[in-house]
């Protein structure tokens, strides 16, 4: 049973899963070894062996440059900077951005010992200059670290004469004011726009 316990502990380290959920998943997989566990394990190994990090944007793909960087239909003058690959994927699912991406690989965090040299900032600045980027959209999360990172990048890009913008924020579509937290409401009021 040591292998089962080890698998349970490993699954329990995944986001959103605790020990109890991990145990249920392991039991489900073991009950379906041939139809689920073995194919899943084989597919996970195949993905682990075939994926690489794009040398340009930092996305994962089977080739480098990735499918996004070689897409000639994308707009070259606009670059969207995100914290993690999951953020890039979320924007791609929305199908609302047709420019280029740059994955930082995290955010500045003094508490966690993450400084500018730990992020993909040097390659960002190099891309901005070499590819003649006109606008950089800073799509970092609205956390203290995300905001700090965005301000830091905006300052550095300002010295290069590049326009830096932030994603709009506030009340989501379909949101009811009664259910919003105070910070979201305050940001929505501050970021209000004139109606046509």
Structural write-up:
With 196 residues, this protein is an alpha/beta fold. Among the domains are: 6-50, Helicase, Ruva Protein, domain 3 (Orthogonal Bundle); 76-166, Dna Topoisomerase Vi A Subunit, Chain: A, domain 2 (3-Layer(aba) Sandwich). 44% of the residues lie in helices and 11% in strands. It is built from 7 helices and 6 strands. It has helices spanning 2-12, 19-31, 33-50, 85-94, 121-130, 144-159, 182-190, and strands spanning 52-53, 60-61, 78-82, 100-103, 135-138, 163-166. A 4-stranded parallel sheet has the order 4-3-5-6. A two-stranded antiparallel sheet has the order 1-2. A hairpin with a 6-residue loop joins strand 1 (52-53) and strand 2. Helix 1 packs across helix 2 (19-31). The longest helix has 18 residues, at 33-50.
Features:
7 helices, Dna Topoisomerase Vi A Subunit, Chain: A, domain 2, alpha/beta, two-stranded antiparallel ribbon, 4-stranded parallel sheet, Helicase, Ruva Protein, domain 3, 196 residues, 11% strand
Q: Terminal Cα separation, in Å?
A: 67 Å
Q: Tell me about the largest β-sheet.
A: 4 strands, parallel
Estimate the global geometry from the Cα principal axes.
globular
Low-confidence stretches: none
- In the sheet with the most strands, the strands line up as 4-3-5-6
What is the helical fraction, as a range of percent?
Answer: 40-55%
- Secondary-structure element order, N to C: HHHEEEHEHEHEH
CATH topology label of the domain at 76-166: Dna Topoisomerase Vi A Subunit, Chain: A, domain 2
